[in-house]
Amino acid sequence: MRAFHSRAVLALTLAAGLAATLPATAADAAAAASAASQPANAVRPAFATAFTAAQEALKAGNGVAALAKLKELEAIPDLNPYEKYLILRLRGPAEYSINDYTAAAADYDAILASPLLPAEDRVAMLKALAGIYYGSEQYPKAAVAIQRYLDAGGNDAQLKELLPQAQYAAKDYANAAKGFRAEVDAAYAAGRVPTEKLLRLEYSAYVGLKDEAGIVSAMEHLAVNYPKADYWRDLIPRVREVDNFSDRLVLDYYRLKVQVFGQVDDRERLNYAAIAARAGYPGEAKKVLDAAAAGKPFTGSEVADANRLRAEITKAAAADVAQQNANETAARNAKDGNALVSQGLLEAVTDNPAKGAQLIEQGLAKGGLKQPEDARLHLGFAQVRAGRDADALKTFQSVKGPNGLTELAHLWVLYLESKQAPAAAPAAAASR
What we know:
single chain, mainly alpha, Serine Threonine Protein Phosphatase 5, Tetratricopeptide repeat, 3 domains, elongated
């Protein structure tokens, strides 16, 4: 949690406010005592002299000496209410300066309850009490005290920032999440990217709250603004948890993972290759197996399965290359655009994405597609592979469909946004 300002600074700042309330000399004190106009705020010369010594000790950073002087003051017979009040005003900062948080908090509570506290000092006293509780890691009390300070008109930027942190530490996740989100939104509104720390705090608050929508939202903001692999590893697999996630999108899911991470997980490689081969993309399957052989080869029972699959896809991939021109001609002559889309995706996954994007665009224009939204998803993929990120972003933003299609396209949008330097909230904010 963020640290509050130092005890010494706080103690001196709060004690300094007393200088204007006390007579500067014993003679002044005597004059004040005899003034009929301010009998309630009078101090005796002996009190003023000892009190000034206590102030000077605290100003010098000697809280122990200040407290010793205040003990002498407390022993003076028949202290009037104002003198007792002044002792509280100095004793609280002195106690805080020597880490006696319990006593300091009690004295500040007493100061705030005193009818002698000037109205213009109330906010400062509330700020002091909040600082005592936060500095001593009494977070539940700190959260209440900071809120009291803000409600009274306090506008200290540090305390505003510390409020949700105190609420989070006190396990008040609902209010903490609300506060962190407000800070995130304020950062975007000001044209700033929220700090990674703030976004992680927001994420943690939603985890504590078990708010799945909030968790995903915060993770999306982290992945876009601070695109670390760990954030994407948390985020991307969630799309598979969408109700009735379609089997036909598993291959597209793997393609996204390859784009983001450079590869799928080791346990997914063989499944990826097998699905690609069954879907009619043997060249893509061959690339998966070749990457495995060059990097971390298959082991155990997967070796035999990989070898059998390699024998099948090697022949099929060679046939695709040999029939490429004929297949493209047939696709152009077809009555609808389905074959053009399939041929375009084949080009995109076998290292000719620019041509692949063109063919898919032609297929979409021709119409009659069985899965037009899938075709747009594949167009966006081909455009990304061809380096046409701006076009791909628009394409993915247009994709809508059930069974995980919308969610998968949304992840592509976030990935593309993460490659930019956003000064505004990512697309994830629209679903919050």
